[in-house]
Design goal:
6 helices; single chain; globular; 179 residues; mainly alpha
């Protein structure tokens, strides 16, 4: 994510949108530091209780919401003022982020929705207002993309859950759990 944040800040700075670039950078650094801290903490000791798992889930959901805020600030403050290749690159980063999140964040509570709804919602909103990024076609395609990604995320979560349950089932006559 740090690379994406640096790229967003650079796009904003080059376009003369210094406040939006700095705000995006600040939110991105806080989110990345939080994620790094969580990764280090959970690498040392995974949550070993229901309460610990619930705390971890809430933390991941909070971090996802913060990342969604980053995308709202950068979409409204930067993307809405971009043109050409820069605008296309921005939309590609949004789509890439959503696609990756569908396969990882969808496994953790509401983390996927907390990231993607603000992220795509801001892109739809900016596409529907007057300005450089105005495009009803883009708004429509983003809605279709979002619905598709939510369905893919649901299917992935269902398949993964089914595979884990199947892997934990005992085979008849085996006497041990197979994975």
């Amino acid at each position: 994510q740090v690379i994406v944040v640096v790229f967003i800040v650079a796009l904003g700075w080059q376009a003369g949108l210094h406040e939006a670039a700095l705000a995006s950078g600040a939110i991105g650094v806080v989110g990345a530091a939080w994620r790094w801290w969580m990764a280090r903490r959970f690498a040392r000791a995974a949550p070993d209780s229901d309460d610990g798992c619930q705390r971890a889930r809430r933390e991941l959901e909070g971090n996802s919401l913060l990342a969604g805020l980053l995308w709202v600030v950068s979409t409204v403050g930067i993307y809405g003022h971009l043109e050409g290749t820069a605008a296309t690159a921005f939309v590609m980063m949004v789509c890439g982020s959503v696609a990756v999140a569908a396969y990882f964040m969808s496994l953790v509570g509401r983390a996927f929705a907390l990231l993607v709804i603000p992220q795509l919602g801001a892109l739809v909103w900016v596409s529907t207002i007057d300005g450089r990024a105005h495009s009803w076609a883009m708004a429509g395609m983003v809605v279709i993309f979002g619905l598709t990604m939510f369905r893919a995320a649901r299917e992935f979560t269902t398949s993964t859950t089914r595979a884990v349950r199947h892997g934990l089932e005992r085979k008849p006559g085996d006497g041990e759990i197979t994975i």
